[in-house]
Design goal:
6 helices; 9% strand; mainly alpha; 2 domains; globular; 43% helix; 159 residues; three-stranded parallel β-sheet
């Protein structure tokens, strides 16, 4: 197996730079289907080095969405975890991203930092068409605009 180089191709190099930019300040880090195999030394090293520079990692959450055995995933990602700030999911629907779409960090912060968990009043429903998803998300986008323009709080309720 040949060694991967994530810096030679300009497009791939840029994608890694964007990832690093977000990951070094992420509050939630969700990984879809990637198990961080020991054979992928460069990618794991890039992720780990960036994550270690994140000043929020002590309170941040990592969620893995993967069908591999939990023990295998815990061993692969162990160097990324801080205490028990991680979750392993076999399907997207059980993640915070699906349970609190467009409010994931807000809901997580309310639950962990303020001890005021939100009721799961707006889980992501299933859609047949992109337009349906866009119509469903529009009130959330409108709330975000109102917050930016005049500080109006989000309408998510606390449990």
């Amino acid at each position: 197996m040949r060694e991967k180089n994530y810096r030679d191709d300009p497009f791939i190099a840029n994608e890694w730079e964007v990832l690093e930019s977000f990951l070094c300040r992420a509050y939630l880090f969700t990984i879809f289907g990637y198990s961080a195999p020991t054979s992928d030394i460069d990618a794991v090293s890039l992720l780990k080095d960036t994550w270690q520079r994140n000043p929020l990692k002590e309170v941040a959450q990592i969620d893995l969405i993967n069908t591999a055995p939990s023990k295998t995933l815990e061993e692969s990602w162990n160097e990324f975890f801080v205490r028990d700030h991680y979750g392993i999911h076999t399907e997207f629907r059980t993640t915070r991203l699906a349970r609190f779409p467009r409010r994931t960090c807000d809901a997580f912060a309310a639950a962990t930092l303020l001890c005021e968990p939100w009721a799961e009043s707006r889980p992501l429903p299933e859609f047949q068409a992109l337009e349906e998803l866009q119509r469903w998300a529009q009130p959330l986008v409108d709330e975000e605009v109102a917050y930016r323009e005049n500080g109006s709080p989000f309408s998510c309720t606390k449990g």
